[in-house]
Amino acid sequence: MFAVNGSTFLNNSLSGVPRVFPRSTQRVAAPLVVVAAVSSNGRPGDRNVSVLVENTSKEMVESATSSSSPSAIDKEAKSTVGGGVEDVYGEDSATEDMHITPWTVTVASGYQLLRDPHYNKGLAFTEKERDAHFLRGLLPPGVVSQEIQVKKMMHNMRQYQVPLQRYMAMMDLQERNERLFYKLLIDNVEELLPVVYTPTVGEACQKYGSIFRQPQGLFISLKEKGRILEVLKNWPEKKIQVIVVTDGERILGLGDLGCQGMGIPVGKLSLYSALGGIRPSACLPVTIDVGTNNEKLLEDEFYIGLRRRRATGQEYSELLHEFMSAVKQNYGEKVLIQFEDFANHNAFDLLAKYGTSHLVFNDDIEGTASVVLAGLIAALKLVGGALADHRFLFLGAGEAGTGIAELIALEISKQTGAPLEETRKKIWLVDSKGLIVRSRIESLQHFKRPWAHEHEPINNLADAVKSIKPTVLIGSSGAGRTFTKEIVESMSSFNEKPIILALSNPTSQSECTAEEAYKWSEGRCIFASGSPFAPVEYNGKVYPSGQANNAYIFPGFGLGLIISGAIRVHDEMLLVASEALAEQVSHENLEKGLIYPPFSNIRKISAQIAARVAEKAFQLGLATRLPQPENLVRYAESCMYSPNYRTYR
Ligand SMILES: NC(=O)C1=CN([C@@H]2O[C@H](COP(=O)(O)OP(=O)(O)OC[C@H]3O[C@@H](n4cnc5c(N)ncnc54)[C@H](OP(=O)(O)O)[C@@H]3O)[C@@H](O)[C@H]2O)C=CC1
Ligand SMILES: CC(=O)C(=O)O
């Protein structure tokens, strides 16, 4: 269901050295900007980028050109990225009668340097750097370290009472000083995750038109049909390793937000860098705008997207196909394309269609499945028994629900040797029409059919709980407050420790709150939710509540694919990612009732996940980074982006 059979690619002819992010903490760097006034494929005026930096000293230019001349850069690109990346502006492919523009190399300095988010360090520029880079007078005289900047930013951040203000402050910082943004996020991940991610990103998407300041990713709309390759070339970064793309039709549990869904790829990719260590410049957020069926947005004067109803059928699939082809042509075989928040009527088809030709991953189907399986493996240490001894009931039979169900069935099948058709029978799903049963099969969407077991029809969750008597109840409906008191009490009546996962996001859509779950189960349930809840006090005991969110998986999963140079995603990679995450849950966590480790350790966790995913890619013959590094955990860690400031010569 998820991806391709590994054996198809065992004899793939792709080879070459993968993209590795050099860690240059000890080296002294120059804030080098390679710029060119160019035209692509001899079409003068097609693309004119011209950044002239004055006050650039001879020494700086020499040092910059000696370490990173265009040819050096070109060589690096050739050695690390396939596809059309090397000949970005068509210089090599241009014939003699075509026009091309020569590259120039300059060093960012002075006023420009302060406005370049990649290189800006604000007041952290040293005296020497202020002299060398023409910054005198452009900054107040005080010099402060990055640590103090972080402290100050956190102090400021905590003054905002409104979550959206914090979100906007974080986005402003990302636009102004990228390294400080990531340092802040990495050092304060538990506090800031709810700001840049769920739940606040949901509100940001709802109000994206009003708060929009700067484009943070590529908008590809129906207007760009036939020109998507050209649009990709407009993005300033050329060496892209991960693309997160949405069409905005199912944003969290908030429905169709059209073009305003851009907040999701932006948020997910900031987690790719902060949690998984992928270089920010290697990440590309994309929103495909095919219109929206959200009437409120269509009438909203601040709406930023196409004012038309959604394209469907051929019109939709042609645009998506052009996008997928252009990505491969521009960035090569090894760029990871993560589908995010597509509606299920497109999500499953896109994954199936492109799973055999591209490195694609659907976070809502696959990432969610992997994170939930990890939580269940960990929870077994608290409730006892094997996975096969449990009964699972889902509210919600869409991407998340059926994705999780399939991975649980796969894992049970792997553990017991029972066929998948048998292991699926331990899993039941309820959708908006009730329990999915055999008698409904003709009217079911294809992804629900494997779950249509023999049972009398039941049209509501409360009755399904009473009849199925699940040990595990999972909410993946996007419908808030659907785990009622009656349902939680019912779960608690036949389970000593019911496992209850309310996965839906944002907080408003959670099937129940942590407080409700602990209170109604008299403190006996094992609970986790998609969006975070504060610890709950019940009967004099404090229950910290865990977060079952695919943010635990996708950053490390993607890192594993990248460091191994994987060319396809395989189900077995999802299983090993779950195992790796489950292993990170300590006795101490379990004693508190937590089935996930704290996010504060996430970079270490991501390295463990990455190593296991990479190892699996090598085993399956899907990796192209040869030879396999000896210690994959250490290798993953060494590849991770560090947000600490660099010292400029
Ligand atoms: N924690 C995490 O990491 C993740 C959380 N999620 C969350 O899960 C939710 C669902 O996402 P996804 O699976 O992609 O969405 P889908 O739209 O694919 O699926 C939603 C499912 O819920 C069912 N449903 C909706 N309302 C009700 C209701 N009142 N009673 C019973 N069933 C209902 C739908 O029924 P029908 O098919 O009949 O329409 C459908 O089967 C979202 O809120 C999302 O934020 C998603 C991914 C990751
Ligand atoms: C977390 C996530 O991917 C979602 O809610 O859609």
UniProtKB/TrEMBL annotation:
<dbReference type="Pfam" id="PF03949">
    <property type="entry name" value="Malic_M"/>
</dbReference>
<feature type="binding site">
    <location>
        <position position="340"/>
    </location>
    <ligand>
        <name>a divalent metal cation</name>
    </ligand>
</feature>
<feature type="active site" description="Proton acceptor">
    <location>
        <position position="268"/>
    </location>
</feature>
<feature type="active site" description="Proton donor">
    <location>
        <position position="197"/>
    </location>
</feature>
<dbReference type="GO" id="GO:0009507">
    <property type="term" value="C:chloroplast"/>
</dbReference>
<keyword id="KW-0520">NAD</keyword>
<feature type="region of interest" description="Disordered">
    <location>
        <begin position="61"/>
        <end position="88"/>
    </location>
</feature>
<feature type="domain" description="Malic enzyme NAD-binding">
    <location>
        <begin position="365"/>
        <end position="618"/>
    </location>
</feature>
<feature type="domain" description="Malic enzyme N-terminal">
    <location>
        <begin position="174"/>
        <end position="355"/>
    </location>
</feature>
<dbReference type="Pfam" id="PF00390">
    <property type="entry name" value="malic"/>
</dbReference>
<feature type="binding site">
    <location>
        <position position="364"/>
    </location>
    <ligand>
        <name>a divalent metal cation</name>
    </ligand>
</feature>
<feature type="compositionally biased region" description="Low complexity">
    <location>
        <begin position="63"/>
        <end position="72"/>
    </location>
</feature>
<dbReference type="InterPro" id="IPR012301">
    <property type="entry name" value="Malic_N_dom"/>
</dbReference>
<protein>
    <recommendedName>
        <fullName>Malic enzyme</fullName>
    </recommendedName>
</protein>
<dbReference type="InterPro" id="IPR037062">
    <property type="entry name" value="Malic_N_dom_sf"/>
</dbReference>
<feature type="binding site">
    <location>
        <position position="250"/>
    </location>
    <ligand>
        <name>(S)-malate</name>
    </ligand>
</feature>
<dbReference type="GO" id="GO:0004473">
    <property type="term" value="F:malate dehydrogenase (decarboxylating) (NADP+) activity"/>
</dbReference>
<dbReference type="InterPro" id="IPR046346">
    <property type="entry name" value="Aminoacid_DH-like_N_sf"/>
</dbReference>
<feature type="binding site">
    <location>
        <position position="505"/>
    </location>
    <ligand>
        <name>(S)-malate</name>
    </ligand>
</feature>
<feature type="binding site">
    <location>
        <position position="341"/>
    </location>
    <ligand>
        <name>a divalent metal cation</name>
    </ligand>
</feature>
<dbReference type="GO" id="GO:0006108">
    <property type="term" value="P:malate metabolic process"/>
</dbReference>
<comment type="function">
    <text>The chloroplastic ME isoform decarboxylates malate shuttled from neighboring mesophyll cells. The CO(2) released is then refixed by ribulose-bisphosphate carboxylase. This pathway eliminates the photorespiratory loss of CO(2) that occurs in most plants.</text>
</comment>
<dbReference type="InterPro" id="IPR001891">
    <property type="entry name" value="Malic_OxRdtase"/>
</dbReference>
<keyword id="KW-0560">Oxidoreductase</keyword>
<dbReference type="GO" id="GO:0051287">
    <property type="term" value="F:NAD binding"/>
</dbReference>
<feature type="binding site">
    <location>
        <position position="549"/>
    </location>
    <ligand>
        <name>(S)-malate</name>
    </ligand>
</feature>
<comment type="similarity">
    <text>Belongs to the malic enzymes family.</text>
</comment>
<dbReference type="InterPro" id="IPR036291">
    <property type="entry name" value="NAD(P)-bd_dom_sf"/>
</dbReference>
<dbReference type="InterPro" id="IPR015884">
    <property type="entry name" value="Malic_enzyme_CS"/>
</dbReference>
<keyword id="KW-0479">Metal-binding</keyword>
<dbReference type="InterPro" id="IPR012302">
    <property type="entry name" value="Malic_NAD-bd"/>
</dbReference>
<dbReference type="GO" id="GO:0046872">
    <property type="term" value="F:metal ion binding"/>
</dbReference>
<keyword id="KW-0521">NADP</keyword>
